[in-house]
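hi! just following up on the protien thing from before. the input was this:
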Amino acid sequence: MTNMRRSLRRYICLLCCLLAALRPVPVYAREPEPGELYAQAAVLMDADSGRVLYDKNGSQVLAMASTTKIMTCILALELADTQEMAEISSYAASMPKVKLYVQKGERYLLEDLLYSLMLESHNDAAVAIAEHVGRRFLPAQLQEKSPADYTPEESRQAVEAFAAVMNRKAAELGCKDTWFITPNGLDATQVLTMESGEIIEKFHSTTARDLASIMCYCIRRSPQKERFLEITQTPSHSFSIENGRSFFCVNHNAFLQMMQGAISGKTGFTNQAGYCYVGALERDGKTLVVALLACGWPGNKGYKWSDTRALMNYGLEDFTYHSLDEAAYDEAELESIPVLQGQTLDIGGTAYVQVRIQERGADGKYMGFGAEETKGLLLKDGEEILVECHMEQQLQAPVTSGEQVGTIRYIFQDRVYREEHIVTTKAVREIDYRWCFKQILQYFLL
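and the predicted 3d structure came back as:
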């Protein structure tokens, strides 16, 4: 009997082990982790709200290579007419590969140079564009002089003037850790003397967070966003110049064919920067931007594509769009506010004023990304928008109609994405001698 029990026990144990082995193991979706990306710095950003959805060393200052050219392109579109003719200087013609091989004295349509810049990443085209736009910020005698007649020093002055515009634009966009020196992204350093007399050395650099913000501006907020997208999405572009030379440019942004919804992007590489990339995708009501810096060196050219795909898929699969209206504060919960020294119908009564949420407009606008409205956010499961209502507990007469008495803020991760004003619905006059006399008269007559 004892042996039988032992055998039965052994049989049951073996059966349990077998069932455990056959039981399917649950697979849990994992977020991308810093160790799973090749890039030294990476950011995934929601282009509509500016919210960073994923950050790996996103504030680390690094060289940016030819991703620089998205700023060169958007400024040229905003500051010049693409049908203008740009003349080539000896300095522009001297730029290293990759290049269009422009020659001194040649004239190019600015539009053609922009295709050369963004499709083939030509360094000489970038300098020709920078000189053409930057020269209008130089002294009058240099503005009147043809770039074909510029000395190398005068050409550098025009490029430096353009770089100054690039840096001003970056500052306007809130990119505090970005410094442009060249329009093409070639590695460069610059010695600056501060007002205090301190001498500092800066290098051509940005952060993944800043680079993503610049791309968001280019595709969403710039007045030339449609033209920027048209150029960066073009598969190829051919053109000729006055002397009969012909050119053919092919778009090298392979990401445009890698994922459904890819809408823009720019690659880059220098010895200091390594492989870099910034790209944008629009799908399922989401617009996502990925910025990668130091994403491998020669021999690892494909790293930037696998990182971009991983982050884009993360944004598509793990985040859902939620309108801020879903968290809208219920106006019915707003209570009337007592008004001290306010006129009432009867002596001894307390004056109250009703309030409402002001319609959004000039005085109650969204607190969005840049100048545009933020109407919603991409959120993961479990994430919620915090709604804070702050309102005066009492007021002092006189009170005017439409007077702001409170604020409703829609907050996520310590950032305000919308602000609404609470205002009074009517005026309340202050108690005065005339009101007192009227109340006394009514009291005695009644």
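The CA atoms of residues 120 and 249 lie 6 Å apart.
The longest strand covers residues 274-283.
cheers
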